[in-house]
Amino acid sequence: MKISLLQQMYKDVLAGTPLPKESYYYTSFLNLCVGWSQERDELCDLPSSDDSIRSHQDAVIPTTDDVSHNLANMNFSFCPREMMLLQLTLIEVLVAKAQSQEIEFRTRQKYHEILLLLLKETQVESKLVCILSSHDQLLSHMASKSLASLVHFQLKEENAVNVIWLSFSLKSLLEFPMHTQVAECLWTLTAIIKDVMKDKMLSESGILKLLAPLDAVLEGFYNSILQHHFDSQLYSSPYSEAANNLISFIDLLESLLASRTQLELPLRCQRVLFLKVSYVLNLINSSTHYFIKKKFIMLLKKCVLYKPQEDSVSGSQFLQNPYLKEDMLALSNVVLQVVNLTWLNEIPLSEKASYFGSSEALSGDNTQNGSDQVVLRALSMAVLKALEFKCQNSATEAEIKEGFESSMSHLLTFWRNHMKCSLHSHPVAHHCEWLSLVFIEQDDDMWEAAKALLLIYLKIDRLRGDAADNSSREEEESWDFHTHANGYNPHCVFLFFLEKIAFDSIVLLDFLISSETCFLEYLVRYLKLLREDWHQFVNICNHFDTKCGSSQAMSSIKPEHQEKQSCVAGVSLQNACCEPEPQTLIPLASSHNYLVFTTEQGDNEVAESNQSNSLLCNDNTSLLGSLQRLVNYDSSEDSELESVGEECLVNTKQMPLHKECETMIREAVCSYTDDKQNKLESEVLPLKQKGSNTSSSLAYIVSSDNIIPQRIMFYKSTKCLEELQKAISRLQGRNLFPYNPSALLRLLSHIEKISKNMNSQ
């Protein structure tokens, strides 16, 4: 065969042009056994697709040595390896073009004929199975992709699973661990599942027909591969065969989890990760290579977030699957059990930071190595979501608190142990601040975590209200102390988040516009709580403004009958919110005439004026990275489209934006920001700085007669919400907001009225 003819065929198929000659002519180009000896065919004596009498187990799989020997003896006029790679690529492209609606119908029919001849006449899948075992990794990879394409094609065209591939898969899975070469089988199955999921015409029937014959075998394989002794040297390197098998299996588990959304009744192999998650947790705590542990931890995070893969259906639809409540409860119970047994603190997080293209820092790099923040957040998210699900399925307040306090205690200790390096200049005095410190660098995770703790708070608060109509003052103080000691007081959490983003309403607007966070759902739930719990919000704002040692310190939250009780992990609320730090608001004595509010990247300070009629603003160089736009609309790992399911959000679903719409929105926001600054300049004295601009620094003065010093946090937080309301209204008026924000605006408007009524008093 001349390579030029094969190359010409490849160019024609790639362009989608008709093939003028007979289908048999083109099939001969794709026949992988062309020029192979008769002995080669005997070695690859696999069952044909028409041989329905032979059982799956009768299939004869050639060894790697046999394949290598026959590849070396191929009688091509061109380099055999290059010819083989071109044939494998052409098979995959031919399948894609045969299913493309952009190709002319007659041309697609011709492509179909060639592929059907290839399957029935040449037994090409038998040869592909042989090549899978090749030592040549590129050939093996391309054979896997081509085989997956052909199995998908046959499943769609004939509504039947390819017998040769099924025989190979059953044999490989059943013979493990006696025969350890199983990664190729797992690659191919994973690729087929992904192809079938993308095919809207196959949907449920395709996944069911594909996985049903493998269901019991896959569950047995799960038990076999995860019950190994992972402390052996086999798993110490990510390049070993054992590690390769495990990594390939993780990818398969992710695909099985994603395919669960396609079936009304999930198969056992799609549930096994939930029902037997203890195997995974044991592996995470073993001496397996860190890369393998990390992949399992990220998979666990996807389980609890209902995000099997980035392009899967939204979380609310995934949650509607039968058995999911049972499965999630089983997973949550096991996760919380091991957390309460110090499992978290026994996981050795990597001490090396991640560097582009390598795991080593460049010479001269002064980056301080610390714990892997990605894994830290993933483990934290798994615990928080497990707590949320367990609380949502608990019937009494006592049942929730019993396990919640213990798990949160271990989680707070875990955070403190692994955040030491990054917090050397920022002592954490209040447990509610931990959430923003841990998750601030990943916006979608940040609001998922905040929403989880908010839902837990709302559930316990509702159970408290059901149990007692009127709570005593002592019970209320005990409840407040419990929320602060366990780091989930919703007002505290929200205020710490606002503080970290310098009370920038435009950052909150970014979150609302983006479809990649659940901030909309979180904000609506929180504003409803704020509307009903206003007095608590005001009290906590006042505590933020209280300096350390003041008679109104945060310790006043602590009830008298618990004066001697220490906080979780030994950190007292005595010093909460009053440690001097760059992000903390420092109240001024009422005798001063003016307060200066400075908003910079990473700097939230109330500076004292020491000279009459003069202003000072210190240019703090510790810039807050989180003030940079936190939402990347192009890509975000581990993100999802949220559907809130609240009656007030029926018409308020966050939708992805086109580039043109994003540009218009940002122009409108910039215009709004300029207008806001001009208004401020006409009312207050601006702070002149060389080279400063509105995006990096905005300073203005307010008479202390208008703002009570103890209400600085209250003023800045309510002002942020007020500016957010105005920005949303402005965008809505220009039809630039991506969804109907009417319900959200009503809530914000109500909060604004309550705030103004309080200020007028």
UniProtKB/TrEMBL annotation:
The record's InterPro entries line, in alphabetical order, gives:
Lines_C, LINES_N, Protein_Lines
Pfam families reported for this sequence:
LINES_C, LINES_N
The Protein Lines N-terminal domain sits at 188-541
**Domain (Protein Lines C-terminal) ranges:** 719-752
Q: What PANTHER family does UniProt report for this protein, alphabetically? A: PROTEIN LINES HOMOLOG 1, WINS1, 2 PROTEIN
User: What is the protein named?
Assistant: Lines homolog 1
* Natural source organism: Phasianus colchicus
In the UniProt record, what gene is named as encoding this protein? CERS3
